[in-house]
């Protein structure tokens, strides 16, 4: 049994909960390609909160270790915890279902995550078909899962859903933490790959969340304001600084990646985090973060200098499309002028930019697909070594405005869900392919354009 893959579990007492980060692909069939994934911070937060209450929790990162779903079920069955839990993301849904089927029917299964939150009833019912005891928790679940482990009746836990004689019942509301500082600092004993060496920079890196939620409302994103209906919540800057200081002292990290939906939300917030780090005695720390061209473009040049002086290394930002019409359609609210301005300011100071693009958006014409690929190429050539464009093929996620649009257009829900998390080699890192056609180009054509682009990009990045 691969017990070494169960992070954080104490051997001295029986397990209360084993959490599983669902594998994106079926690794029982084909071993995982050689690529790195980032750690499942949400699951580790659930584990940290429950462990703080004294529960014995373990986390199996099946995606990181490339463990197939039947093997994970064997691991969990052998440990025989009081509860098992698995996250359901849309591309990982088949693997999560198959795990549920292979899980010992006497072990109650808690499910949650983005897909379960958006398609609650359907998800609950399909898991209940393969497992006898299923509880679904909508949205952020640290408080709800801890309450279940504490022995609280699920009928009293807001956001809990279950089936009673075939009827769905639930407790109204959500158990979402309003004050993030009431959650414990993330306990990294639950993460096998954090800190870890960042394959791009060779630095010893940790990933940190300083906020939750996004104020913007992009039509393709399940984390968008209207999809999640949650307010943006910020952690206190002292808590962030003390987490990072702890990582420096205990693990000797050299860099931090801020994984918030939107880290660079304002000059004030960013400054206050960097000042708190300075006051805590953190220096010589490199950091990467999520940003937005419309916000970055409004910063003045001295603030860009300040960012560079204080360790800014790389910003990830969604550019999404080369077509003005499509950027408007997806409600991106970012102009070409803002993209250009932020790229110039960042790259001339040596701050790198990771640009994200989507091709195959609903209503996208062939010319628009081409304009997106051209834009990614042009920016890569214009800022060589400093701009790295990653292109993804559009995939609709439940709960998003694009999902609703496609359902209204007559697309079949089952077919929309049956997208394949395939792709080999380089594409295995990111590709979730679709057999559905939403744009003028066919899915196969989009895949081949993407492969050509990735091949071309090797001239600039290894
Ligand atoms: C950071 C991020 C990543 C990171 C890190 C992912 C990770 N391993 O945690 C990276 C870049 C690696 C990533 C990859 C992917 N991501 Co992502 N990611 C995000 C992002 C921006 C923030 C996630 C986050 O950390 N939130 C903060 C933490 C605290 O919340 P959380 O992770 O959601 O966890 C909470 C709840 O969901 C819930 N919960 C989670 N798991 C479980 C399990 C149980 C049992 C329970 C009860 C509850 C529960 O409780 C948690 C604690 O409060 C979200 C957008 C968003 N706002 O949701 C997209 C998002 C979650 N990602 C998404 C997707 C699709 C992916 C990929 C599948 C993309 C791909 N390659 O095809 C991969 C999957 C990789 C994997 N299996 O780990 C989608 C999910 C949509 C869907 N319906 O499936 C989102 C919503 C973005 C979008 N496109 O709309 N992602």
Describe the structure.
It comes from Candidatus Roizmanbacteria bacterium GW2011_GWC2_35_12. Keywords: Iron, Iron-sulfur, Metal-binding, Methyltransferase, S-adenosyl-L-methionine, Transferase. This is Radical SAM family protein. GO terms for molecular function: 4 iron, 4 sulfur cluster binding; catalytic activity; cobalamin binding; metal ion binding. The protein has two domains: 3-170, Cobalamin-binding domain (Rossmann fold, 3-Layer(aba) Sandwich), CATH 3.40.50; 195-457, Aldolase class I (TIM Barrel), CATH 3.20.20. α1 (41-52) runs parallel beside α7 and α3 (69-79) packs parallel to α4 (93-102). Helices cover 37% and strands 17% of the residues. The protein is globular. It is of the alpha/beta class and 462 residues long. The strands form three sheets. An eight-stranded mixed beta sheet has the order 1-3-2-4-5-6-7-8, with helices on both faces. It has a seven-stranded mixed beta sheet with strand order 9-10-13-14-15-16-17. It has a two-stranded antiparallel sheet with strand order 11-12. The relative contact order is 0.09. The protein is built from 18 helices and 17 strands. The model has no long low-confidence stretch (mean pLDDT 94). The protein has helices at residues 41-52, 62-65, 69-79, 93-102, 114-118, 120-130, 142-150, 225-228, 237-251, 267-279, 293-296, 301-309, 324-329, 336-347, 366-382, 401-408, 413-417, 443-457; strands spanning 6-7, 17-21, 57-61, 83-87, 109-112, 134-137, 160-164, 167-170, 196-197, 204-208, 211-212, 233-234, 255-258, 286-291, 312-320, 352-359, 387-393. It binds cobalamin (B12).
């Amino acid at each position: 049994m691969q017990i070494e893959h169960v992070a954080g579990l104490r051997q001295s007492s029986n397990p209360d909960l084993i959490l599983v980060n669902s594998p994106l692909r079926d690794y029982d069939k084909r071993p995982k390609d050689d690529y790195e994934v980032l750690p499942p911070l949400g699951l580790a937060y659930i584990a940290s909160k429950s462990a703080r209450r004294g529960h014995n929790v373990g986390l199996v990162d099946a995606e990181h270790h490339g463990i197939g779903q039947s093997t994970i079920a064997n691991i969990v069955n052998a440990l025989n915890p009081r509860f098992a839990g698995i996250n359901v993301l849309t591309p990982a849904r088949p693997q999560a279902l198959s795990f549920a089927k292979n899980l010992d029917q006497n072990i109650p299964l808690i499910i949650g995550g983005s897909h379960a939150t958006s398609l609650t009833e359907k998800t609950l019912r399909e898991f209940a078909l393969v497992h006898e005891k299923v509880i679904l928790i909508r949205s952020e679940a640290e408080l709800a899962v801890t309450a279940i482990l504490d022995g609280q009746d699920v009928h009293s836990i807001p956001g809990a859903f279950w089936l009673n004689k075939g009827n769905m019942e639930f407790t109204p509301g959500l158990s979402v933490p309003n004050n993030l500082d009431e959650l414990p600092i993330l306990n990294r004993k639950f993460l096998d790959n954090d800190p870890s060496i960042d394959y791009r920079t060779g630095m010893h890196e940790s990933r940190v969340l300083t906020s939750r939620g996004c104020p913007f409302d992009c039509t393709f994103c399940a984390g968008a304001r209207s999809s999640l209906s949650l307010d943006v919540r910020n952690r206190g800057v002292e808590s962030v600084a003390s987490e990072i200081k702890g990582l420096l002292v205990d693990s000797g990290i050299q860099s931090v990646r801020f994984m918030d939906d939107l880290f660079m939300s304002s000059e004030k917030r960013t400054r206050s985090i960097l000042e708190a780090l300075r006051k805590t005695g953190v220096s010589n720390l490199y950091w990467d973060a999520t940003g937005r061209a419309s916000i970055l473009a409004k910063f003045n040049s001295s603030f860009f200098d300040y960012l560079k002086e204080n360790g800014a290394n790389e910003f990830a930002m969604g550019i999404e499309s080369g077509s003005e019409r499509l950027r408007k359609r997806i409600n991106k609210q970012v102009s070409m002028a803002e993209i250009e301005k932020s790229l110039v300011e960042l790259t001339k100071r040596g701050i790198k930019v990771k640009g994200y693009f989507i091709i195959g958006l609903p209503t996208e014409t062939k010319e628009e697909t081409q304009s997106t690929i051209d834009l990614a190429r042009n920016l890569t050539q214009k800022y060589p070594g400093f701009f790295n464009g990653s292109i993804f093929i559009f995939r609709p996620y439940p709960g998003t405005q694009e999902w609703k649009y496609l359902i209204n257009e007559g697309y079949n829900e089952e077919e929309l869900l049956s997208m394949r998390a395939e792709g080999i080699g380089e594409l295995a890192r990111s590709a979730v392919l679709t057999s559905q056609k939403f744009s003028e180009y066919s899915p196969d054509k989009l895949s081949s354009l993407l492969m050509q682009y990735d091949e071309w990009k090797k001239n600039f990045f290894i």
